[in-house]
Model the fold of this input.
Amino acid sequence: MRLSMDQIINAVCVSEASRRSLQPSQVEVQLSWEEEYGFTAEVWIGERSHYLVEANLKEAIEQYVYREYGQRIFRSQITLDVDEEFWADIAD
Done:
């Protein structure tokens, strides 16, 4: 299974919104990859922002796949990658 960049962003929005009792539409996400830090996401809620590391992104993806597809997956099954866009491959 492969998740698109939009699906990853949706996963993070829903995860962050549920943690703070907000609507997912109140959360904005910018994904990035840097050699020094790996995969990260900057998350804006209102005027405040914070960063998520790769483990946080994979946790959000785990929850998303379970909620949307009814499949229990583990972080070790998730590979994040990027070329022109981000994606996540989920191993069987």
Notes: The chain has a mean pLDDT of 95. Strands lie at 2-3, 27-34, 38-45, 48-52, 78-82, 86-90. The longest helix spans residues 5-20.
